[in-house]
Amino acid sequence: MNKVRRIERIIALTKILSDMPGRLFSLGHFSNLFGAAKSTLSEDMVTIKESLQQFGLGTLETVSGAAGGVRFIPSRSEESINELLNELADKLAEPERIIQGGFLYMTDILFNPSLMVQIGEIFRKKLGHLNPDYIMTVETKGIPLALMTARAFDLPLVIVRQGSKVTEGPAVSINYVSGSSKRIQTMSLPRRAIQSGAKVLIIDDFMKAGGTARGMIDLAGEVGVEVVGTGVLVATVEPAKKLVEEYSALLILHDVDQYTKKIDIRPAAMALQAN
Amino acid sequence: MNKVRRIERIIALTKILSDMPGRLFSLGHFSNLFGAAKSTLSEDMVTIKESLQQFGLGTLETVSGAAGGVRFIPSRSEESINELLNELADKLAEPERIIQGGFLYMTDILFNPSLMVQIGEIFRKKLGHLNPDYIMTVETKGIPLALMTARAFDLPLVIVRQGSKVTEGPAVSINYVSGSSKRIQTMSLPRRAIQSGAKVLIIDDFMKAGGTARGMIDLAGEVGVEVVGTGVLVATVEPAKKLVEEYSALLILHDVDQYTKKIDIRPAAMALQAN
């Protein structure tokens, strides 16, 4: 192919790498693609990394050795995370979100793709050290959030189903009691969705008593996989004692008052500082 | 701020624009961010656009006028689309995917984030001219695909629920007969999920008789929104007459033979050429 100008190559590299967060690309791959020497590409990577870091847009990580290469790691500054979570808390505190029964309407936020991309990257940053092999959630409202988290980790998503669906083959099921409905429900996982021995990170939109997360942890145990962590977008402050011992919440819901129409929801970090 | 080198600015611009496909950014916004003149930024955009196009990574679109700006449009070459769909067809033809009842196990593919990013971009390219305001799907397996399509369009996602969920407020429900199960089922849409008068594009993972898509179209009619198109990842060749008049399928499933373990699935374009 014709010689590619450095600036054109760097634009293409930036796009390809940031399009697949966490995916390892070998320098040989890019060397073929652009007809450039690996040493030249290494210099390109330094330039890209510096620029991404300078503007808080993430970073590149180099893995050395024969199976090595370079990958994009999404990363946001604490400042931009706090800003986003504060905006989100303000949005969720709009009085018209209160639904009969004291529920909070969150669907428009949960199904907003570009918002969920950002929340997924925040979970990647906060929980990346847990090194999961899969991201797991339960249908339905947490799926977009969990999918975008899986994207930020470059991992497959596993969706626990309510009831057992015929089109996914043999499944393992358990009964659990959801904290909000207090009813006995069934959740199931197709046998072939996950390999036993794997490590999973649970991601969900909302946690009250933690019954649903507890159910997922028990189900994971039944199929021989280990839950290494649980991340939720919103957790309620009460009950303080949840059915799961450890979890990370980005926002804490303190109160929904159906009569005064006041919603008290705050970023988790701020809530902790207030204690 | 310090003067930003051109190459650093271009890397950051590439990342910011391609991170939010379809999102319009004003030059003024970037001018503040980088301390660069709009004319300089315009030149940067030309360079970025040319490079993205050269490598088949999408393009930039400039919107002129006071409310104007620039946005990234994901776009793949026909060649790379065909390559991806052929790979996908090969993967889906693996004999171990056959489940009792003649179903095809597709969950691992449907819940693979980076694959769904690509399929979403293909739908954006093939159905972008329909100019929808929302992407609509029904729970559960089509959600990742629909979400990534919504991302490629920079549109909100609307998820039709099976049954009526208390936490989303008043909902409109209809009964429908799913082609695969032949059972009467209920689907519902929260009143506040979508504005009446809006145009929606339906995206789903699988279509056999089209009963589910038909249900969504009827439900859309009940809430006063117009369905401008239907896109599915896989459609079965039989029944040839579906309950929806027009739809776009990326792959056509010709046959699943439970006895010989042969699966015949082909990209839709190739299937059409063969007729």
Write a brief caption for the model.
With about 280 residues, the first copy, chain A, is an alpha/beta fold. Chain A folds into 2 domains: about 5-75, Winged helix-like DNA-binding domain superfamily/Winged helix DNA-binding domain (Arc Repressor Mutant, subunit A, Orthogonal Bundle); about 80-275, Rossmann fold (3-Layer(aba) Sandwich). Chain A has helices at about 5-20, 25-35, 40-55, 80-90, 105-110, 115-125, 145-155, 210-220, 270-275; strands spanning about 60-65, 70-75, 100, 105, 135-140, 155-160, 170-175, 185-190, 200-205, 225-235, 250-255, 260-265.
SSE diagram, text form:
2 copies of one chain form a homodimer.
Chain A lengths: L5 H14 L7 H8 L3 H17 L4 E5 L5 E5 L4 H15 L5 E2 L3 E2 L2 H4 L2 H15 L6 E5 L4 H11 L3 E6 L8 E7 L6 E7 L8 E9 L3 H12 L3 E11 L11 E10 L4 E6 H7 L1
Parallel strand pairs in A: 5-6, 5-9, 9-10, 10-11
Antiparallel strand pairs in A: 1-2, 3-4, 6-8, 7-8, 11-12
Helix pairs in contact in A: 6-7
What does this structure look like?
The structure is a homodimer of 275-residue chains. The first copy, chain A, is built from 9 helices and 12 strands. In chain A, 45% of the residues are buried. In chain A, helix 6 (113-127) crosses helix 7. Chain A has 275 residues and is α/β, with parallel strands linked by helices. In chain A, the strands form 3 sheets. An 8-stranded mixed β-sheet of chain A has the order 7-8-6-5-9-10-11-12, with helices on both faces. Chain A is globular, with a radius of gyration of 21 Å. Chain A has 2 domains: 6-73, Winged helix-like DNA-binding domain superfamily/Winged helix DNA-binding domain (Arc Repressor Mutant, subunit A, Orthogonal Bundle); 78-274, Rossmann fold, CATH 3.40.50.2020. Mean pLDDT of chain A is 91; it is low at 270-275. The interface between A and B is large, with 61 and 61 residues.
